[in-house]
Amino acid sequence: MGKKAGFFGGAIFAVLVLSLLGSGCGSRTAGTSASAESAALPAESGPEPVEFYFYLNGDSDILGARPDGEIDHQAEIVYDELRALLPAANFGVHAYLDRGISLRGGDPIDSETYDRCADAPAEIRALGETDSADPRYLRELLAKRCYPAAKRFVALWSHGDGYRVQNDYDFDPSDRGFHVSTLLREIPDGFAEAVLFDSCAMASLEVASLLEGKAKWMLASQFELPNVGIRYGGLPALLGKSRETGAILSLLRADSERAFAETGATAPLVLLDLAKLPAVSEAFARAWAAATAKVAAAGGDAYAEFRSSVLRGARDGDLYFLFSRYAPDAMPALTAALESGRGSLHFALPATTSDRDADLEAVAASAPEVFRTWSEKFPNWAAYARVRSVLPASEVPQADVPKQGVQ
Question: DSSP letters along 45-60, please?
């Protein structure tokens, strides 16, 4: 997101942030521990406990302006905002921040965790240099508890390149590549009420599928988010009135979209009911099968025409376009899953290597740098194969002409 989203702000400048190797581990502040080793606090009498977990990847970041005009990394600004949330009864906040290099001399800055349980003193822990591409840090974050039972929300913040495969942000010797699928595997089954993506173009079928069984809802956008990101400042006041998941997500979406509009940008947040994702996946399989048959039968430059008809952005198709053009009867499955009643989901769509590629399966195989990576990262993708498992064989559309291979 960082390469583009920063341009939504007035005094925002895109920068490449390279972390340097740090060392050491800081001491803890006094206060109530929220570590995995510590016993969770018993919930106070009163409202149902709510805990938020923030994973802030600040190694790939852009600059932003604080309210007083000071320029700083956006991750630092967001981190300070989270720490300023007023305490509320039975409300826990956990955050992990992977910092980049300092703007004040280029020195490496320690990564840091922040934990606060209701109105108990906060615990801040310096970790030294860490690599947020390493899933262990999300695993450690999610292991923390303020309360043995609570509604839990996970927010993944990254103003880098969204869910695409990337090189290490900070070039650690581990030589791992960052990919959101690596992180999402660390979310335990049944863990979250919702997963929120404060990152661009995360409202996709592939990303949503990774959350099946892990969360009930997904909040994300198909578009580049303005630099202000998702707004959490209204949470404490709301929690004094309601702990309903729907109320919490509605507040976050409304406050965020209002803040987006103030920047002059439009980036609707999609709220997806993950319980209805299987129906969307089946509808996708039907639409993909219909498109496959039509393209294979037409031959010639039919794939290029198909791709242009459903494309949104450089690399993504749009389910709304796909369904409306190739499977109108599948549209209700999509609209039923989107609580907002608007928006859509992306899906990966590789570019063809030749206008003569008429077979979508062959096209997929011809783009290993795009499609094979997606197929490996997201087991649900490879719709051309999935259509055979979702639909009875008798319902799979067949082309009238032999399929053509890649030339």
Answer: SSSPPEEEEEEEE-SS
Look up residue 61 and give its amino acid. D
Encode the chain (407 residues) as per-residue pLDDT tens digits.
433 332 222 222 223 232 222 222 222 233 334 444 444 655 557 789 999 999 988 665 666 666 766 666 677 778 888 888 878 899 999 999 887 666 666 666 788 999 999 989 999 999 888 877 788 999 999 999 999 999 999 999 876 554 454 433 333 433 344 567 778 889 999 999 999 998 888 888 878 888 989 999 999 988 888 777 889 999 999 999 999 999 999 999 998 888 888 887 778 889 999 999 888 888 887 887 787 777 767 766 676 777 788 876 656 788 998 898 888 998 999 999 987 656 788 887 765 434 333 444 454 444 434 444 444 444 444 443 443 344 344 443 333 322 332 22
Please tell me the distance from the alpha carbon of residue 153 to that of residue 54, in angstroms, as a whole number: 9
The domain ranges of the chain are 2-267, 276-395
What is the DSSP code string of 7-44?
A: GGSTT--------------PPPPSS---STTSPPPPPP
pTM (2 d.p.): 0.76
CA–CA–CA angle 30, 31, 37 (5° rounding): 105
Q: How far is CA 187 from the centre of its chain?
A: 13
Q: What is the DSSP string of 253-314?
A: HHHHHHHHHHTT---PEEEEEGGGHHHHHHHHHHHHHHHHHHHHHH-TTHHHHHHHHHB-SS
- Could you give the CA distance from residue 177 to residue 171 in angstroms, rounded to a whole number? 9
Where residue 76 falls (left for φ over 0; alpha for ψ -120 to 50; beta otherwise) is alpha
Looking at 185-226, list the stretches that DSSP marks H as alpha helix, in order from N- to C-terminal side. Answer: 205-210
> End-to-end distance of the chain based on CA atoms, in angstroms?
35
Of 38, 235, 33, 187, residue with least CA distance to 114: 33
Whether 46 contacts 240, CB under 8 Å: no
DSSP letters, 92-116, are: EEEEEEE--B-TTTS-B--EEEEEE
Give the separation between CA 82 and CA 87, rounded to whole angstroms.
Answer: 11
Q: Residues 21, 108: contact at Cβ < 8 Å?
A: yes
Angle formed at CA 76 by CA 73 and CA 82, multiple of 5 degrees? 145
Rounded distance between C-alpha atoms, residue 84 and residue 280, angstroms: 39
| Sign of the torsion formed by the C-alpha atoms of 125, 127, 133 and 136 | negative
Are the C-beta atoms of 88 and 45 separated by less than 8 Å? no
